[in-house]
């Protein structure tokens, strides 16, 4: 197994190579499509059809935005957790999608990147549904772990022979400190997922937005201590702002 790490628009792109078959450990963003296809053809010398599977660990723009178009270009299948299909459904879901696309542009600006086209279909149409503990079809050395909390459908991916683990956005960094991501939609599930990763004791952990590091170098207790007890997401933040504003108005009377 070879793991190719590419620099994406705002995140790392992980491309697994097993002989002449390729798997993307995440669907990356719409802005990353040329990065992926050029690497396959020019660096690896393989046809686009070598990409056999695209995992979507969760539906945020830098993890799902390129999936549908890459499938059209390569013929690869898309795989996700069953709940991913409904994440952006309905009026609230579409609103959340608009916010998440805007947040992606904000992060890109902070990284000094130009504004790129990143719009994508918010309703995922996967070919395969992945469940906890399942080995990935066509890439049997890899196992699916259901690690919700950031969303209700997050997946982590474990390479069984080497015990290397990709956890997407389960941990991020703010001011060089490892912290929980934003949002944390399900705090209890998030803590359970983080504890599960610690108990698993992988040899190395790969992140969407951080360089890989040995699991033993991570202070999981410190990250758990920072995890919210209530949902920390768009709707909860908006509710708090409204209540805060109303409270100030009441005090002004």
Automatic annotation (TrEMBL):
Residues 10-209 form the Metallo-beta-lactamase domain. InterPro entries: Metallo-B-lactamas, NDM-1-like, RibonucZ/Hydroxyglut_hydro. Pfam families: Lactamase_B. SUPFAM superfamilies: Metallo-hydrolase/oxidoreductase. Signal peptide: none annotated. GO terms for biological process: antibiotic catabolic process. Belongs to the metallo-beta-lactamase superfamily. Class-B beta-lactamase family. PANTHER family: ACYL-COENZYME A THIOESTERASE MBLAC2, METALLO-BETA-LACTAMASE DOMAIN-CONTAINING. This is Metallo-beta-lactamase family protein. It comes from Alishewanella aestuarii B11.
């Amino acid at each position: 197994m070879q793991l190719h790490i590419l620099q994406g628009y705002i995140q790392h792109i992980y491309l697994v190579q097993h002989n002449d078959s390729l798997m993307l450990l995440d669907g990356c963003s719409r802005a990353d499509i040329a990065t992926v296809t050029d690497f396959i053809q020019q660096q690896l010398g393989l046809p686009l059809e070598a990409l056999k599977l695209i995992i979507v660990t969760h539906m945020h723009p830098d993890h799902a935005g390129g999936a549908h178009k890459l499938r059209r270009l390569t013929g690869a299948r898309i795989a996700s957790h069953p709940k991913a299909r409904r994440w952006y459904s309905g009026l609230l879901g579409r609103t959340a999608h608009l916010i998440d696309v805007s947040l992606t542009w904000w992060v890109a600006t902070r990284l000094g990147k130009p504004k790129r086209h990143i719009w994508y279909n918010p309703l995922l149409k996967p070919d395969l549904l992945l469940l906890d503990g399942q080995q990935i079809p066509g890439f049997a050395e890899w196992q699916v772990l259901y690690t919700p909390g950031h969303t209700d459908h997050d997946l982590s991916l474990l390479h069984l022979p080497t015990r290397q683990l990709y956890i997407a956005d389960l941990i991020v960094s703010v001011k060089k400190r490892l912290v929980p991501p934003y949002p944390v939609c399900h705090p209890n599930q998030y803590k359970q997922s983080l504890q599960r990763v610690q108990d698993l004791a992988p040899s190395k952990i790969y992140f969407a937005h951080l360089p890989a590091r040995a699991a033993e170098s991570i202070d999981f207790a410190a990250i758990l201590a920072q995890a919210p007890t209530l949902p920390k997401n768009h709707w909860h933040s908006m509710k708090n702002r409204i209540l805060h504003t109303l409270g100030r108005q009441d005090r002004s009377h």
